[in-house]
Amino acid sequence: VEACAQLTLIEYCDSESESTGGNLTNLSHINLEEGSKLNRIIIQRINEQSTFNHLEKVELKKNAQFNGISLQLGGAQSRVESRGVIAGEGADFSNYSLSLGRKDQLFAQRTIQHHLAPNGKSNLLFKNALLDESKSIFSGLIKVDANAQNTDSFQTNRNLLLSGNAEADSLPGLEILANEVKCSHGATTSKIDEQELFYLQSRGISKTLAEKLIILGFFEEIISKAGSDDLVQLLRDLISDSFTD
Description:
This protein is an alpha/beta fold. About 15% of the residues lie in helices and about 50% in strands. It contains 3 helices and 13 strands; from the N terminus they run E-E-E-E-E-E-E-E-E-E-E-E-E-H-H-H. The strands form 2 sheets. A 7-stranded parallel sheet has the order 1-3-5-7-9-11-13, with helices on one face. Strands 2-4-6-8-10-12 form a 6-stranded parallel sheet, with no helix packed on it. The model has no long low-confidence stretch (mean pLDDT about 95).
């Protein structure tokens, strides 16, 4: 993306057939020049017999901004490896992902926020809602080089388990070489709130629909980052429709 340019990019990863399996790899190397902005949305809905690999490296120059949202809705297995390199002063890297797991789906997530220059920002939020026997594995790292003073960086992984057989593993990490930084990381795994579920059911809402509404609310924090109202509604509709697959 050229200097001072702005771009919104929406990528769909779909399957033409539901009966045959395969392996899809989405490989990206993104360079954001000085002052440029990229809003990138990835929607993965491949069939349940296939494997999805998403490998990306995003390099940001001075004052560049990246806003990435990934929807992982399909596939037997999906692996995301995301590397954000904050190479220019004042660059801002935001990386968001949501995964809806059903049956025995597996979501493997590896992320790095690498700060090379001072006054950079990064924010990563990965959310997984897991039903049935689905599983997520998250491993993230914030790395701050010695020259990257005044870095402001966050990394969060939140998991919602909707089944006693669902599983979420999280391993966030920090590697800080600068002495003037603001960095934090965290991971939470929780079950669905039984009081919320009871309240909705007491109002005549079925358990299945109640769980769907709670999941949509859980994902809303990420959906709202899409930008325009049209894009936000598009993501809401795609997630809602996936429950009927």
